[in-house]
Write the structure tokens for this entry.
Amino acid sequence: MIGLQRIRKDPDAVRRAVARKGEPVEPIDRILAADERRRGLEVQANELRAQRNAGNRQLGELMRSGDRQAGEWLKAEMAELSARIDGSAAELRQLEEAIEADLLLVPNLPDPSVPDGKGPEDNPVLRSWGEPRPVGGAPPHWEIAERLGLFDLQRGAKIAGSGFILYTGAGARLQRALIGLMLEMTNRHGYAEVWSPLLVNAASARGTGQLPDKEGQMYVVERDDLYLIPTAEVPVTNLYRDEILPADRLPIYHAAYTPCFRREAGAAGKDTRGLLRVHQFDKVEMVKFVHPADSAEELETLTRDAEEVLEALELPYRTVERCTRDVGFAPAKGYDLEAWSPGVGKWLEVSSASNYTDFQARRMNLRFRPAAGARPELVHTLNASGLGMSRTYAALLETHLQPDGSVRIPGALQPHFGADVIRA
């Protein structure tokens, strides 16, 4: 959530920034109109309270003088003033609620350095690593997995529905090995591991920006007003909600492995085979809480931490910067890491690294105190996948397929997997 003062100070600049993201500017207009009405009401209410205070003093004097007739008339006038004050207070509460609701609809403003663009096709490639295998140099991962018995799409669908994967045998062991390697690497980079709940309340989902922006993408337990997490970003970022952290605690780095759940797994009929678009997937998430002056640099190191996982897995990848229409509702700036999938013949997004600046912290009331006695300031938050498992798994099978039909296990992964190859 951006601050109301920022909208008041330069509404045209805020409108232009929101328009760069392709988001509607109407909430800004409503906020300004409601804020103007609220400030007018506050002035009016203060004047009415001053009149009532003066009237009460006058009433006391009349009662002491014994002028009952004038006193009764003044009592009636005071009652009318009180009713008007109560009416103003009720309208003020309604206006404040309306402003708060509309502020939740305003996206984070994109950093000026974010390139303009209409979608992922306009994201500039910043760098790449490795030599991609030629398109068609391997069959798609679902064919490899079927031959090697790594996962069972039909039984997964029977148990839960389309988009839910059942990993089996060496395939289940490979999934566990990937999780272990990723957690080991994040620990090496100083991320303290947490094991979080998989369900969050509405306040947590609102704090990170899932509500009200992405409510339709989340699984909801309506009876208990809880949400299955779409990413560990939600519970981990909310660890310090409504707290004031001492400055010497920053930066704080956390990593967490969780299953993730998303109702909307992508466009209908698009990339629905195999592991590319699923409703449940595993992910290791990295989350940072940092001093505002450091968040730009922290985004670069966060992205590099995710890149190193891909390099350890020996997966060719490229790093792209998300343009204004693809950066997302809550981030101010972000990068995507895309692993090459030769069997599918495309780059697969396996990580998104984002700097949210103070957008999430304001929604969560998460602050730090720069010095003893100083006024608290908002923390900056960042996160990145390190990595998203299902597409990484797909790219790994296709990239490391051997001529004899086996899949080579990269050296860094072998201690976690317990072998150097998967054979039929």
Summary: The radius of gyration is 28 Å.
